[in-house]
Amino acid sequence: MTNSGRWSQQQVFKNCGKSDCQSGCADDIANKPHGPYTQLRRRNPAETGQQDAVYLGKVVLTNEQLAIINEQYSDAYVPSKQEILAALK
Q1: pLDDT bracket for residue 17 (50, 70, 90)
Q2: d(C-alpha 19, C-alpha 22), whole Å
Q3: Closest CA to 2 of 53, 55, 42
Q4: Which stretch of DSSP H or E encloses residue 52?
Q5: With 0-12 CB in 10 A as exposed, 13-18 as middle and 19+ as buried, what is 64?
Q6: Is pLDDT at 33 greater than 90 in this prediction?
Q7: DSSP state of 49
Q8: Is the pLDDT of residue 1 over 60?
Q9: At residue 56, what are phi and psi to the nearest 5 degrees?
Q10: d(Cα 78, Cα 83) in Å, to the nearest integer?
Q11: Mind listing the pLDDT tens digit for each residue in 36-72?
Q12: Residue 78 phi/psi, 5° resolution?
């Protein structure tokens, strides 16, 4: 079954490495990095084992919103960030 996995939300923090960063990430990597940045991921275990991903940036979804996304995008289609945000309105 193609794309049989459910969408999950992952959040990461990253150092930007820019010399003009106000947080000073480039000067000291121990400084608090930027974020959280959110990405939706879905694994395809039955087919290839590859993962589908949609970058959401600073948007953080609630459990209820994630359930809506899993309900609307349970087929093989990988939505864009704009489609996900529109589905939540």
Answers
A1: confident
A2: 9
A3: 42
A4: strand 51-57
A5: exposed
A6: no
A7: S
A8: no
A9: -110, -5
A10: 10
A11: 899 999 987 566 668 899 999 999 999 999 999 999 9
A12: -105, 110
Over residues 69-84, the pLDDT tens digits come to 999 998 888 999 999 9
Beta strands in 3-48 (DSSP E): 8-14, 34-43
pLDDT top residue among 2 and 13: 13
Residue 51 is given by DSSP the state E
Q: Who contacts 6 (Cβ-Cβ below 8 Å, separation ≥6)?
A: 42, 70, 74
Q: Which candidate, 89, 73, 81, 77, places its Cα nearest to that of 6?
A: 73
Q: How many CB atoms lie within 10 A of CB 79?
A: 17
Q: Centre a 10 Å sphere on the Cβ of residue 13 and count the other Cβ atoms it contains.
A: 10
- Look at residue 55 and give its three-state secondary structure: strand
Q: What are phi and psi of 86, to 5 degrees?
A: -65, -35
